[in-house]
Specification:
The chain is mainly alpha-helical. Helix content is 74%, strand content 0%.
Length: 243
């Protein structure tokens, strides 16, 4: 209910806001978001060992290594920052929607809460898909090595790879929310999306290949397929709502 009250604060804003007021709102949103991220990161630092153990086990690795005396501590800091971002993402998303809501019409403001919930939902869905597919990524990528080579995983490199994959999936899975908002604002339409379907398919394929390392065709498909399904679903939703 607290989130609902904060999101509905925008209804009390005047229809016209000065640039100073917009900048003040932006400053407030950034401060709250960064504070939430910082607090979540500090809390996450106490659990970084468990997170490393989970990611190593999830990737199907038996043992990992670090090569410098400060490697473990720096790894903990990096992991805590990433975990803090994930934990604070609902707050960051809520403040972002609160910031943009004054620029929306009254009818559009009613969609702020559902869109906020959708933003958090799709981010969590992206994280889940990445974690589910992590063992497959590791198996396929290490499978390219010749028989006389042995994969010796450095924990800094492996955790960095896993974090990049997980956060990237979470952010890219926001595609349907972005498309729907653009459609509601009249920037894109279902007709425009359908007319440029081929370009979107190519663009999504390029994005999937860019975000998934390796030269095999399987790992990009794990990202491309849900993105394309989201694209088709959002275009259909815009069409059904007359957009």
């Amino acid at each position: 209910m607290a989130t609902l009250r904060v999101l509905q604060e925008s209804d009390t804003h005047d229809d016209e806001m000065s640039w100073i007021e917009h900048l003040e709102d932006l400053r407030r949103a950034l401060i709250v978001s960064l504070l939430a991220w910082a607090v979540a990161s500090v809390g996450a630092f106490f659990f970084w060992r468990q997170a490393v153990e989970f990611l190593v086990t999830r990737g199907g690795l038996q043992r990992t290594y670090f090569t410098t005396p400060t490697g473990a501590f720096l790894l903990g800091v990096k992991l805590a920052i990433a975990m803090g971002f994930v934990a604070a993402f609902p707050v960051i998303a809520q403040r972002a929607w609160w910031f943009v809501s004054p620029g929306l019409r009254s009818q559009e403001r009613k969609l702020v809460l559902p869109l906020f919930l959708a933003t958090v939902l799709f981010f969590g869905l992206g994280l889940s898909v990445a974690l589910f597919a992590l063992p497959l990524f590791i198996h396929i990528l290490t499978g390219f090595a010749p028989a006389d080579l042995t994969y010796l995983p450095l924990v800094e490199d492996y955790i960095g790879f896993a974090l990049l994959l997980v956060v990237a999936f979470g952010l890219v899975f926001e595609l349907p929310v972005v498309l729907y908002v653009l459609g509601r604002l009249g920037i894109v339409s279902s007709g425009w999306l359908y007319r440029h379907r081929a370009a979107w398919i190519i663009g999504l394929a390029v994005l999937a290949n860019f975000l998934t390392p390796g030269a095999d065709p399987i790992t990009p498909l794990l990202l491309f397929v849900p993105l394309y399904v989201f694209w088709e679903g959002t275009a259909l939703l815009l069409k059904l709502t007359g957009r």
